[in-house]
Protein 1
Amino acid sequence: MLNIAKPTIRYYEEIGLALKVSRDKNNIRMFSDDDVMRLRTIQCMRGSGMSIEDVRHYIELSTIEEEGIQERYSIILHQEDILMQKKRELEEQIAFIEHKKQRYAEQLQGERHSGPASWQAE
């Protein structure tokens, strides 16, 4: 479903990020749609680099309905900016690696043998 380890869910419950979920007769957690959405939100925010305390604040804002919407929106915009910067950095790194891959492939095929490696030549 979300691919979150049991100890992580337990930790989120212990620190109050995730609500304690109900359990069936075999003591297996029974997640509601709201539980799943909350865990997905936590997982996404943590994956985007947000600290536990910032995630906690974001979730607390969701409990105050309309008063928290503007701040939650600002938080989402900020996280989007962070992720877009990471995306640009990753795209630059991928372009660099693809360039290197192409250069090495050419050299291995004998199309371009430049002698000893030169950082500027590559």
Protein 2
Amino acid sequence: MWENGTTWPFATAGQAVLEYALILLGVALTVVVALSAFGNAVNALYQRVLAQWPGS
């Protein structure tokens, strides 16, 4: 805070960027965990679909 009680002019913009970065980090971690848990099953399903696809 400055002497008159105000905050740095860009403090709220920096906070918003930090919040978006934390949300993006949470989404990325969720994707990594989901892929590690379900990756083999999703790959097997994908391979089955490709094997039955017309023209393959």
Protein 3
Amino acid sequence: MVLKKSWKVIEPTNGSTDLHIYEEYTEKEKQKYPYSQGIWLASVRNYHKDKQQENARLIAAAPDMYKVLKDVERVLGDVFETSNDDHQPQLVPILMKVQRAISKAEGMDDEESRSARPDVHERV
């Protein structure tokens, strides 16, 4: 017979921002360890309940932001290619930030990003 234990979440108290997850003890274990919360499973560091909605909205918007960023990269690249030399130095840092953000969203590290996207500095 397999006993299924439930989990419980202990929210931050006394100024702490750490949330702890425990597996509840069986009745026998509760008698043996009356002052314990249960079997510790995990902790979530710097948990802020008020940030949950903010993070959920950001995650929900991420696909749209990614598509827009890809459009911005294309347009900035076109402008960079057709602009005169006076404007190119202003475009370089912006285009590089856009490319880094896209690469990060695509799961690339810095080296993979450089090989996937030509270095803007080489075109200046």
Protein 4
Amino acid sequence: MKRNCLALFGRRFDPEALRRTRLWSGITQSQLAHIVYDFEHSGPKRIEKLETGVTGPSLMTVKKLCEALNCSLDTLAPKLTK
């Protein structure tokens, strides 16, 4: 069973925030995939799956997404409220 690593830190990945931030940054899914996944062929499909919530990112992927989109962790993975 795959664990949600962000939940261990009291955070939840927000797929819609990823989409909004990417669009605001003016880059395509393909461009983001090239940055995050080092030119991996299946990258754009992976970004699409992240944006639609089909899959969740690893901690390393969230870090790379934040760096590529010049945003904070709070933007893409806000803290869970109690």
